[in-house]
Amino acid sequence: MTQVMKLADGRQLTYDIFGDPHGVPVIFSHGYSDSHLIRHPNDFLTRSIGVRWIAADQPGVGGSTAKNGRRMVDWGADMEQLANHLALDRFNVAGHSGGGPHALSIAYRMPERVGKVVLASPVAPFDDKAVTGMLVLNELKAIVKMRHLHHVLRWLLKAEARRINKNIPAYVAATAKMLPRESRTILRNPAQQALFEDNFRAAFAQKEEGIYEMTLALWNWGFSPRDIRPPVEIFYGNNDGIISPRMPLYLSEQLPSAKAHEWNGANHYSFVDEDCWIDFITAARG
Fold it and tell me: Domain AB hydrolase-1, which positions (predicted)?
């Protein structure tokens, strides 16, 4: 059941806890156009590995209050409040895709409390033109070009969110068709397809707000990957249909202590498939 807490500035943060309530705490940051619900659908599997999976909705996603003009570094401060609220003295962090830099921001904010960072298909700083050149999905390439046209970008994202919210199952089916490499994961079984529907439903609950705010936060993080002190493990698929596999490796090279693992044949969302999920959360458990 989704839980709610008030942040110091009065904003609302929604989050949930999955897996083993007595397991190793891991704060997870979801990716672009996703929500806190993105994960493997079988929570018994997460529980059996001994992980307490703590996932929060970023500003403008689910029930979390929007934060206009937010930066990536701000997420670390929000998660510090969540960690204090849950009385977590020591914990690990994880992130997927655009949630990668969010996870790193937590480690940047609390290096003495974060034991390790585990990322799946993470993006690197978009300030670097070499990074935006590693985008595969045409829609993301277009967003990069419109980054400075804030009103146009928001209008386009609003129109897209309105279309998505009219029929979430149809959107999931259309996404799988548009991204054939990702379709194996999205449509793997009825439980996984239903999870993606719930995930996107929460992601666009506030229409375009969450995806718009994250888009702008992908530039000028407020910290550098070179500032991250805890060790980092990165997993990525060599069949990614959204970003080039070179991007996670590029990020790995910038981190002081990082190790990269390739998932052969895996796509961008493969981290929720059973075999990859076991790898991912086992590493996150530490």
Answer: 25-274
